[in-house]
Design goal:
Two copies of one chain form a homodimer.
Chain A (H helix, E strand, L loop, with lengths): L16 H8 L2 H9 L6 E2 L11 H14 L2 E6 L2 E6 L1 H7 L3 H7 L1
Antiparallel strand pairs in A: 1-3, 2-3
Chain A binds a DNA duplex (30 and 30 nucleotides) through α3.
Chain lengths: 103, 103
DNA sequence: GCCATTGTTCGATTACGGTCAAACTATTTC
DNA sequence: GAAATAGTTTGACCGTAATCGAACAATGGC
């Protein structure tokens, strides 16, 4: 099988700061990004997240994060993992992610 | 006359990151903040800003920035100056403003 | 005092985004 | 193949926010 790179994320060179900021400017998405701070891939399974929203809402937030350039999705069978694009973001917007994770 | 501290800005200790991010997550406001990067106070005079919006809209954005904690307003006669709260923001959210100004 | 200047506020309109419920897709398991 | 699991998509609803135009307020200059 192919090393599954489904669900397209934008090239980091195309990512605009204002769009990243908009993606971060929501309580749930900001919290998700903080959970992803360790750099590892986390399953999207809604039970594992501490939010009181439906899984369709969570799915919407995951999509917003991915399309903004903040995360990538790794498909593994029927499980989808989400991962912060930390290294790329650090190169494109130095200091931004660290300051957000710290705040 | 009093050294005019009209137009209240929130205490920086009360400022939440997500609210700062929301204020920054607009093209016009982000551009305003970048113009304020030099740290000096700029008049709100709409003719001096390169935006194709009405002055009432610009006034709304200035208000949003101030209420989010990003700026302060200095009243000087009939001219209002706006200033980035750089030092306070640097202490509250280290690295955030610098990364936004750089991006 | 009158007028121009500078900016705010108000009301209306419109667009966008977060949320839910339900239907749908894909994958694994039995 | 059927059922269960993991997640997405769609459509509707609703609150919020961006925008405009007009009215309003405050100040400075004459």
């Amino acid at each position: 099988m192919e090393p599954s790179q489904s669900y397209p994320s934008p090239d980091m060179s195309d990512v605009q700061l204002v769009d990243v900021l908009r993606a971060l400017a929501d309580p749930i998405r900001l919290e998700i990004v903080r959970h992803l701070a360790d750099g590892t891939a986390h399953p999207k399974t809604s039970d594992l997240w501490p939010f009181d929203v439906q899984k369709s809402t969570l799915s919407h937030h995951f999509k917003t994060l991915r399309e903004s350039g903040l995360t990538r999705t790794i498909v593994n069978g029927r499980q989808h993992d989400i991962q912060l694009r930390k290294a790329e973001l650090d190169e494109r917007f130095p200091g931004l992610i660290d300051s957000v994770l710290r705040g």
